[in-house]
Design a protein that fits this description.
With 105 residues, the chain is mainly α. It folds into two domains: 41 residues, no CATH class; 47 residues, no CATH class. It has five helices and no strands. α1 crosses α2. The longest helix is centred in the middle third of the chain and has 27 residues. The protein is flat, with a radius of gyration of 20 Å. The termini are far apart.
């Protein structure tokens, strides 16, 4: 049911388990799990495969986050730059910038 909480918060809807939106959202978001159980596949293997997929996807999510957090144009005075109490290492930031700045320019 946590996925429905995320869905309702993301869409700005009230979290009301009696609402049609909540019930339809719960059913739709539970469909992948129901398919795995109904198909007879080993749920533990599917869990491992899903975690492998998430681990491959994680750098693709973190890289833009680090770039945006260290960009003074985007974050202003809250950017992750040396001297403002940021915990990000300058070497890590420069490495990310050099890796991704050439592909975006």
């Amino acid at each position: 049911m946590a996925e429905v909480n995320v869905l309702t918060a993301y869409l700005g809807r009230p979290e009301n388990p009696r609402s049609t939106f909540y019930r339809v959202g719960l059913f739709v978001l539970a469909l992948p799990a129901l398919v795995v159980v109904a198909s007879g596949l080993d749920p533990f293997k599917i869990l491992v495969y899903s975690q492998v997929a998430l681990s491959i996807q994680l750098p693709l999510t973190i890289a833009p986050l680090l770039l945006l957090a260290s960009d003074k144009r985007v974050m202003g005075s809250s950017s992750a730059v040396p001297g403002n109490g940021s915990s990000a290492s300058p070497r890590v930031r420069s490495s990310w910038r050099s890796t991704f700045s050439s592909s975006t320019s």
